[in-house]
Amino acid sequence: MNNLPKIKKHSVTPRKAIAIGGGLLRVGDTLPIDQFIVKESGKKNPAVLFMPTASGDLPAYISAFTRVYRKLGCQVNVLRLASNRKMNEQKIKSLIAVADIIYIGGGNYNFLLSTWKKWGIIPLIKSAYKKGAVLTGLSAGCAALYQHVVDEEDNKPCRLKRGIGILHGVVIPHYKTSSTILPNNFLSSIRKKNTLVTAIEDNCGVFYKNKKLQGAIMSKGGRAFTIWPPYVKKEAVNLYIHKNKSPNS
């Protein structure tokens, strides 16, 4: 008879991320996605940290986000990196450390990344994600999560810009379905990487668990697609069916 003590198995906290192609949160375009984000935290009243940096900390955006997420039962904190001159490293670290959800808003991608680098935000976000915070980004915030994003500045050749690399491949937020799978001006830059492209329309979120694509959360007909080399066909991302129990059940 084996009387050796049983070794306890330690549960590993799943790493979750939701990338949203675009949409107007303030008018409810992304509400089903927002509800999904809150549910994935696994808490009845999760602490959500809103990062409106890409918008320059636009007050109307902050107000809309706060209103929507409080209605969903969240405790809302806002990290104002663009407008709060009294912000300091300790305050930043404490806000990120206590967040169950981190939501990175839309706006100017270049400003977002340069501000993050200035304040040393990237390693803090990665650490929070590894510890179990649900990481979410919309538009510019979505783009930041991937290895690369297609840059479409006016009157400039299309090129790829680096993200923080939590999610694999190239992302195209605000994707618009047309007869061409990828616009011709995208192809030369993307072919150099020879990697997966995830194209996300407005009002669609793509859900990842442990960096593996799980499915799409759709609102108002928004869809997402994966496009592999040689980029001649695309596959729709299947609707994700929520399998989790309700918080505290």
TrEMBL record:
UniProt keywords, alphabetically: Hydrolase, Protease, Serine protease
GO molecular function (one): serine-type peptidase activity
Family matches, as InterPro entries: Class_I_gatase-like, Peptidase_S51
GO BP term (any one): proteolysis
Pfam families the record matches: Peptidase_S51
Transmembrane segments: none
Entry keyword annotation includes Transcription regulation: no
Keyword Hydrolase: yes
Domain of life: Bacteria
Family of this protein: Belongs to the peptidase S51 family.
Protein name per Swiss-Prot or TrEMBL: Peptidase E
Organism: Candidatus Zambryskibacteria bacterium CG22_combo_CG10-13_8_21_14_all_42_17
